[in-house]
Model the fold of this input.
Amino acid sequence: MRPHLVLVHGSRLSSTQWLPVLPHLEADAAVTLVDLPGHGARVDEEFTMARCVEVVDEAVRAVPDDELPVVVGHSLGGYVGMAYGADHGHRLAGLVLAGASTTPVGPGAALYRGVAAVTDRIGPERMTRLNDRVLRRVYGAETIDPVIAGGYYFTPTTAAWSEVMTHCRPSMLSEVDAPVLLLNGQFDQFRLGYRAFVRAGRDVRVAIVPRASHMAPLDQPAAFAAAVLRFARGLGHRAA
Done:
């Protein structure tokens, strides 16, 4: 059976985040792109974790019966995927959590509070200029301009990470019937504490994207896609 990947973007961006990865996926998998509440096409919706789960569920339910639904979430999207898996894991063939292997409490929560505080303090106009400069310098305009053309969404940041810190824990993986892949960049600070997620789940695998940071889908799109497809192909053999 062919995998069907439901891709869930990270904080401040939209589904255009996945544009550099898509060419490496589409020959081997069907793909659905999701905009989270407060982002992209859903910019007018309030961000709550409950609404995020509903949005992802709509996408998963739309997957044809002859394809394997696999949710792939990055960063904020990874924690949304975790929440979705805890509620509706029986509907999934697999779950990929990328850049979402840090427990958002205690010292780890400082990462999330820092992102939200900096965003609020700098303001959307200056954050836009800063992000444009940094992203174009790191990735080059040809790669990143289609991504940032989808816009930045700073307003939901505080609410989004508050929801993550309130709701998301490694124990949620104990409710996921499907195999889970923790996929992180080699230099991703958000993979600290991944062992707690491995212990909590029923079938949790770990993979590293070499020479990648937290933004592994942008740093190494081909390697990121290859890791996702390796996992997804294994699900096909399992289903057969």
